[in-house]
Write a structure and sequence with these properties.
single chain, Rossmann fold, 4 domains, globular, Ribosomal Protein S5, domain 2, Heat Shock Protein 90, alpha+beta, 643 residues
């Protein structure tokens, strides 16, 4: 937020001269991916974020209190705010109305040095012009100076002049748009995705009310977000459903050299670390200087407090940044006049002065928090010390498991039936359960590029164990060695021996459990393999249907039912339900599940990291109640259960 002394009054001189023009609009339609990331689902939703960003800029400047987003029938979106309203008078450079200039010109707006906004988000200032360029139809309505104005556009071009169509006492801007199907192959707005993003924005801009209404449904249910607690409320939301290590959430804020800093965190009894960074309300998925300053402040302040209060002995080594991260859930948000982002999609913040500002403000606030909450301080530092001990034990275990010779593939596990190819790009590793399935798949495979690693029983649930315990598991050790990537901080995806790793389990409850255990292991310790697209789930058939000499395979209940309908005229059909891979002959397994020409593989991907993290906590964590609620909620959707 602007400094109180510098904050513009509602009567500030925000007029057409504040709109600066730098270049034209046509490039957006030619290369939309450069401006919104993609023309897929992410890009479609990014149009909403651009409209809302303008409204949030007004809120951060102190002029808007309410934002509403309506999902309308016909793939239309309406975004409303009660800010000052876009200026409508003639622009001194373009000689057109300021509204038309804002809507149809790239790199324009009050963000380029006029002083109308001290802090703003948006996509490099392109904002609503990109939405205009990529919309089949768009209408801007402005309440300003007692009048209601509107103008309509299509594909970035003006369709009507700016007109007055009524009177209004309030001020604000309304944008209604319909994405252009010529740009976006599939236009489908996801309410859950919109709620998640706008909830996050409400946390980051405390005191603003954001309402979402889905008018596509018969029952129009509004969702409203309003949080006085800001980031502290956000951390409370992120840690819901898990055991907290200490009762009080840390929250600190301050300003240094014109940079506003907010930070909040809480430790839980989980083993994973979850942290988010924002710059001018824009999520920086790849971190940056604000997160670096946050981490440095935590490490230094915790060590200072632990030494001062004898929680670390003289001969104890300092807690490392890694020791601090176990069970940590934290958020840092900075607001600054001139953010320098790396990349068009603003994934990483680069301003070096931000690191210093965050480090100083968080260090001071955290030192005060620890002094005022000694029980919280002790609980946090005890967890960090425990994490340090586990890290040292894990290091010893890794040195035992991951010797140089093993990493170079000279001592692969005996149970691994490796492929002859040494080219990772063509090599596949099938992880199968049990010796029976292992035997069938070894006979079925193409030895040139397909390797088989059978697992005996269920692997360790890594959601409930630290790395040192995980490395005691023979099955996990065999998998780590076979993959060749090492694990934890030693992980190196460049050393992956296979670029396709396929989880192949039976189609029963035990197989589903083993698959979930393996997914948990990969998500927690080999996530880059998921991000690279290396992890797959095999889809063996559920049924073998034979009529005379004709044999068909069904991969779902629905497919089986359709086949049975078609075969009703033929008597003597034999339907076999496969519950285990071991029930299939080697040729059947190859033909249906392993042959690249015929098989169906599901590629594992993670779209929402936090949601994936929460689901793994629910399904595989220590807490029983959340898992019970999950089962009760989704029980009716369960299929193919063992009888």
């Amino acid at each position: 937020m602007p400094d109180k002394k510098e904050k513009l009054s509602p009567k500030s001189d925000y007029t057409a001269k504040d709109i600066y023009v730098l270049e034209g609009l046509e490039p957006v339609r030619k290369r939309p991916g450069m401006y919104i990331g993609s023309t897929g689902s992410e890009g479609v939703h990014h149009l909403i974020w651009e409209c809302v960003d303008n409204s949030i800029d007004e809120a951060m400047a102190g002029y808007a209190k309410n934002i509403e987003v309506d999902l309308l029938p016909g793939n239309r979106i309406k975004s409303i705010d009660d800010g000052r309203g876009i200026p409508v008078e003639k622009h001194p450079q373009t000689k057109k109305s300021a509204l038309e200039t804002v809507m149809t010109t790239l790199h324009k707006g009050a963000k380029f040095g006029s002083g109308a906004y001290k802090i703003s988000g948006g996509l490099h200032g392109v904002g609503v012009a990109v939405v205009c360029a990529l919309s089949k139809w768009i209408r801007a309505e402005v309440c300003r100076d007692g009048n209601k104005y509107f103008q309509e556009y299509s594909q970035g071009k003006v369709k009507t002049p700016v007109k007055i169509f009524g009177k209004c006492k309030q001020t604000g801007t309304t944008i209604i748009f319909e994405p252009d199907p010529a740009i976006f192959p599939e236009i489908k707005f996801d309410l859950k995705r919109i709620l998640t993003h706008l909830r996050q924005q409400a946390y980051l801009t405390k005191g603003i009310k954001i309402t979402i209404v889905d008018e596509r449904e018969k029952i129009k249910k509004p969702y409203t977000f309003y949080f006085e607690g800001g980031l502290a409320s956000y951390v409370k939301y992120l840690t819901q459903g898990v055991v907290k290590r200490h009762p009080n959430i840390f929250y600190g804020s301050g300003e240094k050299d014109g940079i506003l800093v907010e930070a909040a965190f809480q430790y839980t009894d989980e083993y994973e670390c979850y942290e988010e960074g924002f710059a001018n309300n824009i999520y920086t998925g790849e971190g940056g200087t604000h997160l670096t300053g946050f981490r440095t402040a935590l490490t230094r302040t915790f060590n200072d407090y632990a030494r001062k209060n004898n929680l670390l002995k003289e001969d104890d080594e300092n807690l490392s940044g890694e020791d601090m991260r176990e069970g940590f859930t934290g958020v840092v948000s900075v607001k600054l006049t001139d953010p320098q982002f790396e990349g068009q999609t603003k994934a990483k913040l680069g301003n070096p002065e931000v690191k210093v500002a965050v480090e100083n403000i968080v260090s001071e606030a955290l030192a005060d928090f620890l002094e005022r909450n000694p029980q919280d301080a002790r609980a946090i530092i005890e967890k960090c010390v425990l994490s340090q001990k586990a890290r040292k034990a894990a290091k010893v275990a890794k040195e035992t498991v991951l010797r140089k010779g093993i990493l170079e593939g000279l001592a692969l596990p005996g149970k691994l039936a490796d492929c002859t190819s040494r080219n990772p790009e063509e090599s596949e590793l099938f992880i199968v359960e049990g010796e029976s399935a292992g035997g069938s798949s070894r006979q079925a495979r193409d030895r040139h590029f397909q390797a088989i690693l059978p697992l005996r029983g269920k692997i360790l649930n890594v959601e409930r164990a630290r790395l040192d315990k995980i490395l005691d598991s023979k099955e996990v050790k065999a998998l780590i060695i076979a993959l060749g990537t090492a694990v934890a901080e030693d992980f190196n995806i460049e050393k992956a021996r296979y670029h396709r790793v396929v989880i192949m389990c039976d189609a029963d409850s035990d197989g589903n459990h083993i698959r979930t255990l393996l997914l948990t292991l990969f998500y927690r310790y080999f996530r880059p393999m998921i991000e690279k697209g290396y992890l797959y789930i095999a889809q063996p058939p559920l049924y073998r249907i034979q009529t005379g000499k004709e044999i068909q395979y069904a991969y779902s209940e629905e497919q089986k039912n359709e086949m049975v309908k078609l075969m009703k005229k033929n008597f003597g059909s034999n339907i076999q339900r496969y519950k285990g891979l071991g029930e299939m002959n080697a040729d059947q397994l190859w033909e249906t599940t392993m042959d690249p020409k015929n098989r169906i593989l599901l590629q594992v991907a993670v779209e929402e990291t936090k949601e994936a993290d929460r689901i793994f906590d629910v399904l595989m964590g220590d807490e029983v109640l959340p898992r019970k609620k999950f089962i009760q909620t989704y029980a009716k959707a369960a299929k193919n259960l063992d009888i």
